Fold this protein.
Amino acid sequence: MAGGWLALCAAGLTAATAANAANCRDLTPLRQTSVSGPERPITPEDLARLRDIGMPGYSVPDQTPFTISPDDRMVAFTLRRGEPATNSYCLGLYVTDIASGKTRQIDAGGEYISYVISDLRGLVTPSGIPAINTPQWGPDGLWIAYLKRSSGVTQIWRVRVDGSGAEQVTHGAVDVDAVVWSSDGRRLLFSNRPALAAARAAIDHEGLTGYREDGRVMPLAGPKPFPRAPIPYEYWSIDIATGAVRPASADERLRITHGDDRPRPAHAKFFAQAGARRAWIVPRYPAHFQSPNELWIQDGTSEPIKCDAAACSDRISGVWVSADRKDILYFRREGWGQSETTLYRWHPGHAPQAVLTTEDVLTNCQYASGALICARESSLAPIRLVAIDPHDGTSRVVFDPNPEFDRIQLGSVQRLHWLNRYGTEGFGDLVLPPDHRPGQRHPLIITQYVTRGFLRGAISDEYPIQVFANRGFAVLSLDRPGRWAQARAKPDDPRTWEEFERENNRDWIDRRNVLSNLLAGLRKVEAMGVVDPKRIGITGTSEGSMALWFALNNTRNIFAAASMGSCCMDPKTLMAFGGKAWANELQASGYPHYTQKNPSFWHPFSLAMNVDKVRIPMLIQIPDDEYGLALETVTTYRDNHRPIEFYVFPQEHHNIWQPAHRLAMYEHNLDFFEKWLAPSGG
C-alpha cells in the first residue's frame, strides 16, 4: 500500500468493551444528588484518582476533548482516571444530555494515549501529556468515531451512541493521529505518519553499527537518537461498508486538518462560521515572534471588517457566531496581571459588551442551542462541563466528573494581588488549612508557576496543594508574570525568537522580575500574620525549577527546604547533557558555549556553584529521561554533606504520566515537608 501503510479491513460489530477490571467499575461517577455523607479530609489518593477530560486547564485551537451532537442536544467526551494501585488508567467514552445532564457510558477500555511533540528543537520527541482524543459525531448522530489504543497501537473505533455496540474500523500497524467523518457519513478520514514509524525503525537498525551522534541525541534522555522533524503526515479515506482505503482528496485533507472543509483566512488561530457569517482571530503581525491579535468578521463575499474596539485587540481567544448570526462571542484575558477571563458579545456596529468576568478557567468552549458548552475549573472545583448563557453569563453544570469532591474537606482560598519592585502586577492564591484559626501561624509551602483553575498539584501536578493544607500547611500558589521582553514590547516590534530570548536573559532580567514577584507575594502573606517566616518551603518543576534555583541563589535565610522536579541548570551538565540541539538553542538566546568559562553568567543560576551558600534540605524527583541534568547538583550537594533526597522515575518524560509515580511524588513531598517544616509543632 502507498506510504508503507498496512492493509486495512472492516471489523465486525462487537459488544462494547465491558467496564474494564473491577477497579474501573466506578469510573462512571455517581449522580450529584446521590453523593452524601459528612465531609472528610482530602487524601493524596483523591487527587491521584481524579477523573479528567482532556488536558484540564488547557485549550488548543482546532482540538477539543468533547464535541456536540449534530442536533445540539448531547455532548460526547472521553473520561480518564488514574489507578495508582495498578499503575494504569481507566478510560471510557460517554455522552451526556445537555438539558438533563443524564450521562451514559457507551464504550470503555483502551490504553493511555500520550501526545507526541512534532518538533522540539528539530526533533520528534515523546511526551507524558495526554493526547487530545476528540470524539467525532457521525452526520446522522447515531455513531461516534474516536481513537482507541490497544497493544501499543492507536486505531479508529466507531461506537453506537445508544451504547449497543462498538467496532474497530482500522487495523494498521501505524498509530492513527486524527479522525473525522466525511460529510455524507459513509467514510472516515484520518491521518497517520508511516514515515515516523520508518524513521524509528531505521534508528533501531542504525544501532547495530552504533548511533552517529549528529545532533539527534539528547543525552539527558538516553543515547538513542530521535527522528528529525518535520515528519510528514499522510491522509487517508476508508469506506466504512467495505473497508477499502484510498488516499484522501484535497477537500478531505482540509476536513481532517480543520474538522470541516470550509476554507479559512491565512494565519487564523480561531475560526467560526454560521451560514454566510464568518469570524476569526489572527495575529496583527504574523511574521513576528510575539504579536497582538485581532478579531475580524465577513459576511458572504463582502469585504472583511475588523473590530476596532480596544476590547477586540490582544489577548483574545476563541470565537463563536450566535445562533441568530447577529453576534460574535469571544474571550479576552484581562484584570490584574491578566488573571481574569472576560466573555464578550460583539454586535457589529456597536461596542463589544462584557457578559461574564471570572477568575475561573474556561476552555474548549463550543456553541450549542444558544449556550457555550465549556470545560470550567475554579480554585476549589476540578473540571466540569458547563453551559454558559451568552446574554447574562449565568452558568449551570452539565456534567460533573468528580461529584464526590462536594463532600471532601478543602482549605480556604484567597486570591492576592501585589506589585513587585519593577512595577509588574503579580497574583497568587493563598490556601489555608480547613481548621485555621485567627492568630494561628502555619509553615508555608510555595508552589509555581501557574495558579489558574483547580489547585491540584501546581503546573506539573507533583505538589498536592490541598493535601498540604489538610496537613497543617499554608500554601502560596504563584502565577508567573509574563516574560519581561513580551510585557515591554512595542506592538510592532519585529523580533525573532532569538532576539526575544536574548533580551529576557540579559543580566537575567526576566529571572529577576520573577524572583521579585515571588518575594512581593511572600511579603504580602507574611504581613497577614498567618505564616511562620522561619518555616518556608519552596517547590518547582521545569520553569518552576528555574525560578526556584534563582531564588535560592539570590536570597539568604528565607527558605528552610526545597523540593523540585525536572531540573537543573548547572554549566557542566546543561550544555553537554542537554545535547547539541538544545545547546544550539541556548546559545542563540545568549548562553555561553560549553568551552567558554563564564562564571559571572552562571553564578546567579547554578546550585552547584553556590553550594557554600545554599545549605537547606532538598528533594529532587525527576523522570529517567532527564535525570542526567540533576547529577551535578546532586553530586556537589552530597560531596558537601548537604541533606538531599533524589528519586528517579522509570519510563517517564518531562511530564509525569504514570499514576503510581504521581502518587509517590505526592507522598514523598508530604513526608519531606513534614520532616523539615514540622507543621504539627506550629
Summary: The longest strand covers residues 74-83. The mean pLDDT is 91.
